[in-house]
Amino acid sequence: MGQIKAGLCGYYGKGNGGDEALLASVLQMLPENVTPLVLSGNPKETRDRYQVESCDRMDAMQVWQALRSCDALIMGGGSLMQDATSLRNPIYYGGLMGIAERLGLKTIALAQGIGPLNSPITNWVAKRAFGGCTAITVRDRASAFLLQEWGISCMMAPDPVWNLEPSPVENLWDIPAPRVAVALRSHPQLTPERIDCLTRALVDFQTATQTTILLVPFQPASDLALAQSIQTQLRGANHIFCLEDPRKLKGLFQGVEMTIGMRYHALIMAAAHECKCFAISYDPKVSQLMAEINMPGWELEQIPHDPNEITQVWLEHYANGDPLNTAQIQALIDRSLIHRDLLVAALSK
């Protein structure tokens, strides 16, 4: 098999730790004969961090020239084909895939979390884009069922970030243990009242456990202000970690006893390191993860109104909850390699 150049498109270079973790995971699984070209919101940052070629994802001429230079386009992974945040997402990614197909490129949709697709237009765009793909993998049953309804074949496997190689975090082990990570995000349903309730519960939880709280904004542009507001209320040891390298972000959870998280990939990273996890779900992908690996938690709109109740639930899980064991984690990692195997097979055709 000769040298191949593959374009990579996703929500890359936008300061989101989860999407950067997906990019790092895809780069990790590429065969040696594949040269990546990443479409990024911050090409310089992407080039410097991953030592790859990169272009501006929103510069039409750069994207056109990039696609013309490639043999394949890899879209992955995550919740790209959804219109809950914007109609532009499926139109942008669907358009890219359509152009790539017209140019004769192999198109591979990797580790997709499809939907919600509320608009007939975005539904049509997504169906057309996936229908023309050389190969598709998804990370959840709902996405697999949707493609099945459309008559499109796919493979399902756990998120590739389960297999992402972590990097050590400098000075982490100098921070007093035990450590509890908190990875919340802004959301319309995370109202000031709910934030206050969770913060009061966290203060009492820390007092009872004498833990060090690590606040982890996965997307600092939207999460950091929330982390800072919580930090001002904490009475015990605490740190805010804004880690740009997703491999270090995953490495952070190697030193954590328990994680309270809204962020999907924070929960995966933590669970992958035998950390007790408690989820607060704002999105179907988090709820599906909770169901698939029996992770305790609440739907965001169902958070108790009493901080004492929240504290007691967290204390019970901290004392008696069970993390995934080594065999369960290895099984998830092994199954996540389906993404890599299908990618290699599709590129070698």
Compact description:
The protein is of the alpha/beta class.
Topology:
Blueprint: E1 4-9, H1 17-29, E2 34-40, H2 43-50, E3 53-56, H3 60-69, E4 72-78, H4 88-102, E5 106-112, H5 120-131, E6 135-138, H6 141-149, E7 155-156, E8 179-183, H7 192-209, E9 212-215, H8 220-231, E10 238-240, H9 246-252, E11 258-261, H10 264-271, E12 276-281, H11 284-293, E13 297-299, H12 307-320, H13 326-348
Parallel strand pairs: 1-2, 1-4, 2-3, 4-5, 5-6, 6-7, 8-9, 8-11, 9-10, 11-12, 12-13
Helix pairs in contact: 1-9, 4-5, 7-12
Structure description:
With 349 residues, the protein is an alpha/beta fold. The chain folds into two domains: 153 residues, Rossmann fold (3-Layer(aba) Sandwich), CATH 3.40.50; 158 residues, 3-Layer(aba) Sandwich (Rossmann fold). It contains 13 helices and 13 strands. The chain has a seven-stranded parallel sheet, sandwiched between helices. Helix 7 links the parallel strand 8 and strand 9. Helix 1 crosses helix 9. The longest helix is centred in the C-terminal third of the chain and has 23 residues. It is globular, with a radius of gyration of 20 Å. The N and C termini lie close together (9 Å). The mean pLDDT is 97.
